[in-house]
Amino acid sequence: MAGFYRSEYTTASGEKRNMATTQFEATDARRAFPCWDEPAVKATFHVTLNVPVGRVALSNMNVISEKPVEDGARVEVEFATTPIMSTYLVAFIIGELDYVEDVTKEGVKVCFPFFFFPFFFPSSLVNAVCF
Known about the structure:
The protein has 2 domains: 3-97, Sandwich (Immunoglobulin-like); 101-131, no CATH class. Helix content is 6%, strand content 39%. The protein contains 1 helix and 11 strands; from the N terminus they run E-E-E-E-E-E-E-E-E-E-E-H. It has one helix at 123-130, and strands at 3-10, 16-23, 42-43, 48-52, 56-59, 63-68, 74-79, 85-86, 92-95, 101-103, 109-111. The longest helix has 8 residues, at 123-130. The radius of gyration is 16 Å and the shape is globular. It starts with a strand and ends with a helix.
């Protein structure tokens, strides 16, 4: 598990599925994009991912735009620029994932602090735990 790689998992019904994810610590970001991949060297990152329609794309920052790609089978997901950080902290994941988010009364969007496979957690359980 290094760089940007395909990971296989098994659903509750025993079906095997794939997702794409990252593991960049400490010097494996260079496997995904050109960079000075040293923990002491820091930069900002502006991540854009082209993902299959119906899949969730996650990264370090919030989504700022989603638009269909010309082929109609993919969506371009653009994330806000990160703060200055080391390459090993950059993360992205693409898969059949779900997460819980809400908006505070002040209008701030917040996400539940972990992402999970929806077929393992029924929405009734998630809603009872989170809100």
